Amino acid sequence: MWGSWIAVISSILYRKPLLLRTGYEFYKFSIQQKKSNIYKTFAKFISILAYKKAHEINVTTNEDKCFIIKKFKLNKNKINIIPNWIDTDLFKPAKNN
Question: The whole model's pTM is what?
Answer without folding.
Answer: 0.79
